[in-house]
Write a structure and sequence with these properties.
binds zinc ion, 15 helices, 441 residues, TIM Barrel, alpha/beta, binds guanine, Urease, subunit C, domain 1, 37% helix, 2 domains, hydrolase, 16 strands, single chain
Length: 441
């Protein structure tokens, strides 16, 4: 908890459901002169118009004034790599070559406990500076990387998902970064689950890297492990790049890439598939039936030249979608920058992405994709008070665009397109301020 209650004033926006397209105002609450009350337990006690603040709730509370700024639930990043801090912005390759050239050598260093600890701390501080308070995270194949990540997340009291990367297939998992055997991988995974799953705000996600680095035996083990523990999560990559899709067809055959995971029992209500750029309607139907979710990672898909995700098709076929930065293939930790690119990718697909739906995807939509909407994602009473304070005047360009805007929707859209870490004035976790933007000038 945080000790005593907290009253935060500012413009409060949160979502109760998917706004759809065009956005339905019944799906959100906006209090332009609003307030949030956080209880001593760090949970939301009340939210509404500042003038309606119940005196009983705010008696003896600490008060923070963010008037003029926008308070939204902490952003949820549904796909990111803690071990790729040092390979963000690596030049010139598409997925499979990029992994071999840059990613695998960088991940090999996470065998070292001090390195894993330092980079996990740096990584989490970048998330908080971007206003992101929850993520589902790939570490490396080394148990050390999982322990380092969860220790750093626990120190910051963050709601985070993570799990040891599983990769055992020769030659796509290189010898220096490969599980020695499926038996050992399972044993290490079970031990990490026992240590971390459900401890404080942490959850364990079984993490086979992707089909090309997996043997049939490994995928079979993952399906069985989840059946034994259906409260765990599963995360992997799927159908990101055309060469990758062709390779999976060669290695596994079958109807499609998604079908490979389906055959091994990996399509569950707790599963999250990053990318899904190259999938078809049958795949989407299966994902929707299973209750699995997709992480849409536009900065990554553009950076690696992977392709344009079809957000409209996912929506039409009722597949749950969250937003992922996918650092280090992604080029920003910021949900706002990611939404800016999501808007452009959607435009290239002939669609639109309203600011309301964008902020939904980055908050409650992400929480739903992670099956964490019971505890985070909006300001319903009893939810954990993770939130972000955004500044419409963060830069001269954004300030000017905000000033000439005629509606809140227009200001929100300018923030989505022009915002980045500079727009994050402060980040709160369980009602405690954990990040404050440095003074400018
Ligand atoms: N597919 C398998 N591993 C990775 C990874 O580390 N990054 C991305 N973008 N795709 C992957
Ligand atoms: Zn990834």
């Amino acid at each position: 908890g945080r000790g005593c209650p907290l009253v935060v004033r500012g413009t409060v926006l949160h979502f109760l459901d998917d706004p759809g397209d065009p956005p339905d105002p019944a799906t959100w609450e906006l209090f332009e002169d609003g307030a949030l009350v956080v209880g001593a337990d760090g949970r939301i006690a009340w939210t509404g118009h500042a003038r309606d603040l119940p005196p009983g709730l705010s008696a003896g509370a600490e008060r923070v004034d963010h008037r003029g700024k926008l308070i939204v639930p902490g952003f949820v990043d549904t796909h990111i790599h803690a071990a790729q801090v040092d390979v963000i912005a690596s030049y010139g390759e598409q997925l499979l070559q990029w992994l071999d050239t840059y990613v695998f050598p960088a991940e090999a260093r996470f065998d070292d406990r001090a390195h894993a600890r330092a980079l996990s701390g740096f990584f989490l501080d970048r998330l908080l500076a971007a206003g992101t308070t929850t993520a589902t995270v790939f570490p490396t194949v080394h148990p050390t990387s999982v322990n380092a990540f969860f220790e750093q997340a626990e120190q910051r009291n963050l709601r985070m998902l993570c799990g040891k990367v599983l990769m055992d297939r020769d030659p796509y998992a290189p010898a220096y970064l490969r599980d020695a055997s499926v038996a050992q991988a399972e044993w290490e995974t079970r031990e990490l689950i026992a240590r971390w799953h459900g401890r404080g705000r942490l959850g364990y996600s079984i993490t086979p890297r992707f089909a090309p680095t997996s043997t049939v035996k490994l995928l079979t083990m993952v399906g069985r492990l989840w059946n034994d523990h259906p409260d765990l999560w599963i995360q992997t990559h799927a159908a990101e790049n055309e060469d990758e899709v062709a390779l999976v067809d060669e290695l596994f055959g079958g109807r499609s890439y998604i079908d490979v995971y389906d055959r091994h029992g990996l399509l569950t209500k707790k599963s999250l598939f990053a990318h899904c750029v190259h999938i078809d309607d049958t795949d989407r139907t299966r994902l929707a039936e299973a209750g699995s979710a997709i992480a849409f990672c536009p900065t990554s898909n553009l950076f690696l030249g992977s392709g344009l995700f079809d957000l409209r098709a996912a929506r039409e076929q009722k597949v749950t979608v969250g937003l992922g930065t996918d650092v280090g293939a992604g080029t920003s930790y910021s949900a706002l920058v990611t939404l800016n690119e999501a808007y452009k990718v959607t435009a290239l697909r002939g669609g639109t992405l309203s600011a309301q739906r964008g902020f939904y995807l980055a908050t409650l939509g992400g929480a739903k994709a992670l099956d964490l909407d019971g505890v985070i994602g909006n300001f319903r009473r009893g939810k954990e008070a993770d939130f972000t304070v955004l500044d419409f005047a963060a830069t001269p360009v954004l300030a000017r665009r905000t000033e000439v805007s005629e509606s809140f929707a227009e200001r929100l859209f300018a923030l989505m397109i022009l915002g980045d870490e500079r727009a994050v004035a402060a980040t709160y976790v369980m009602g405690r301020r954990v990040h404050e933007r440095a003074a400018r000038g």
